[in-house]
Q: What sequence folds into this?
């Protein structure tokens, strides 16, 4: 099942986002965090493993880059074939710390400050590369005063993904210009509602 639609059929962000939210069971995502009793469930977060198996002591892979090169950014870039000028240009820019530990540190910061506006942009970047899931952010924010805002932002992200829209382009989606496009939008939302209702009945 796919909700992807051609660019020319892409709904405007406001009615499209609210249509998606209503189909998933939100009463009025723009103003309230209330959901209907039979709203689409968001599964709880699976706990991280408490321990991992011991790694292999010797692991030889053809073409493996030596550890002393990997640990030195400049040596690694040289090994990959970048010129001194390209390396200097790249290293002159400030790059946010990457990886799952950095994403989890941001989650802890969000839990303590509850300031979504400060962390939202970084969370979107971490989610795009799989360092943290939208589901984990959702559950961590579920008891916060600004939960509605967080949920709306996460739905907004999914709305863009459903319509093949780059996540960093924000809400600038084309608005319907004639009655035919408005009707097409309504038909699309109705079809989505039927598909999800069918899934609920077979769950």
A:
């Amino acid at each position: 099942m796919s909700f992807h639609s051609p660019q020319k059929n892409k709904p405007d962000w406001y009615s499209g986002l609210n249509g998606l939210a209503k189909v998933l069971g939100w009463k009025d995502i723009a103003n309230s965090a209330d959901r209907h009793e039979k709203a689409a469930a968001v599964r709880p977060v699976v706990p991280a493993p408490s321990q991992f198996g011991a790694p292999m002591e010797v692991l030889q892979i053809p073409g493996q880059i030596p550890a002393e090169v990997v640990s030195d950014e400049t040596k690694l870039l040289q090994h990959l074939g970048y010129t001194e000028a390209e390396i200097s240009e790249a290293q002159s820019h400030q790059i946010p710390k990457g990886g799952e530990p950095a994403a989890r540190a941001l989650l802890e910061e969000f839990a303590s400050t509850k300031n979504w506006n400060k962390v939202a942009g970084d969370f979107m970047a971490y989610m795009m590369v799989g360092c943290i899931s939208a589901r984990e952010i959702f559950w961590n924010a579920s008891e916060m005063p600004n939960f509605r805002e967080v949920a709306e932002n996460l739905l907004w992200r999914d709305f863009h993904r459903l319509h093949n829209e780059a996540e960093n382009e924000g809400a600038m989606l084309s608005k319907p210009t004639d009655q035919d496009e408005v009707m097409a939008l309504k038909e699309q939302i109705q079809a989505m509602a039927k598909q999800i209702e069918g899934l609920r009945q077979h769950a």
